[in-house]
Amino acid sequence: MSKAKIKVALAGVGNCASALIQGVEYYRHVQHEEEAVGLSHLYLGGYHPRDIEFVCAFDVASGKVGADLSEAIFTHPNNTIKIADVPKIGVKVLRGPLMDGVSGPLSDVITVDESEEADVASALKESGAEILLNLLPSGASEASKRYAEESLKAGCAFVNVTPTILASDPEWAGRFKEKGLPLVGDDLTDQVGATIIHKALLETLSRRGVRVSETYQLDVGGGTESLNTLERARDLKRAIKTSSVSSVLPYPAEIVAGSTDYVDFLGNRRDSYFWLRGLYFGGVPMRLDIKLSTVDGPNAGSVLLDVVRAVKIALNRGEAGHVLAISAYAFKRPAEILPPDEAEKLFETFVRSG
Ligand SMILES: NC(=O)c1ccc[n+]([C@@H]2O[C@H](COP(=O)([O-])OP(=O)(O)OC[C@H]3O[C@@H](n4cnc5c(N)ncnc54)[C@H](O)[C@@H]3O)[C@@H](O)[C@H]2O)c1
Description:
Elements: E1 6-11, H1 15-26, E2 52-59, H2 69-72, E3 94-95, H3 120-127, E4 131-134, H4 141-154, E5 157-160, H5 170-178, E6 182-184, H6 194-207, E7 211-221, H7 224-232, H8 234-246, E8 254-262, E9 269-280, E10 284-295, H9 296-316, E11 321-322, H10 324-330, H11 340-352
Parallel strand pairs: 1-2, 1-4, 2-3, 4-5, 5-6, 6-11, 7-8
Antiparallel strand pairs: 7-9, 9-10
Helix pairs in contact: 1-9, 3-4, 6-8, 10-11
The structure holds nicotinamide-adenine-dinucleotide.
């Protein structure tokens, strides 16, 4: 039997939104888990990706505002890979409040649409949205907070995909709890992102007795988000990634994890470099040097599909405030960082229970 639809609104129609919307189409007709290549769960708590319906969207970029969501996701400067044709959705992208959404290097690639700002809370209510995904550029912290306020006003659960500190802030968590709404975040963990790979590497080596003394993980990318991160969120991103990576080692080590630079011809691709040095049996030195190549947008897809469906489950159960079981599994900076296997178990138990 088909489940009720999950009504989702988007703040920011960039590469991440594009991958998510295309992903729903890509997996729409897949019936069996074993055929769902690239997904952690085809069904989650009984929900299939096709149960997700996009009912409302906000952006500020000229060309995206006023366009059908199915067209806006392929509009400049979005440059992520195309994995599916998306039929007309019937949702026009509304002009959101700009605030600090477009500044620094982003101003060179985004022309701000001049039309009147929409009333976000009213639009959310009218659309019947249950969950608002915050997909704004890193560093757009005032605008992110504004969408969180509007989400509270409209009675929507809030998913903070960005590194702005929101879900892990007890004050915001308290406000969502008071309103009886779930809140998850901050800063999504990619499916095969540098952070999760770096953590797995360090965890395996330390479990096998290696004493890692120094390690770095640095990357270059060509999406708008890489350009934006250069000026606006490099320090914040580095702090979040480094504390997430450090959490898996039971001893102190020199760790650097962060974004390095923007290389426009890479498009939405990202190359991540891992390097480490340590000592194994008898104090014998070892080194490891690896490169990972991925595309940013799709790297968020599988995790986002899990998050949206898990938040719907939280809504169904009347869970309110910060939901650690979802945040610890799917985000780099939850209120409490758990070891990856523990976070995964907590998530699976959450989905199955109740
Ligand atoms: N794999 C991933 O893509 C991934 C992983 C972890 C975190 N994130 C986070 O997700 C967020 C989105 O990433 P992206 O690659 O889609 O970025 P993007 O730059 O491609 O898209 C951001 C969109 O937000 C729009 N925008 C800017 N200001 C706005 C405002 N005030 N109101 C409404 N829209 C506004 C822009 O026009 C653009 O369409 C970033 O904060 C990023 O750090 C992404």
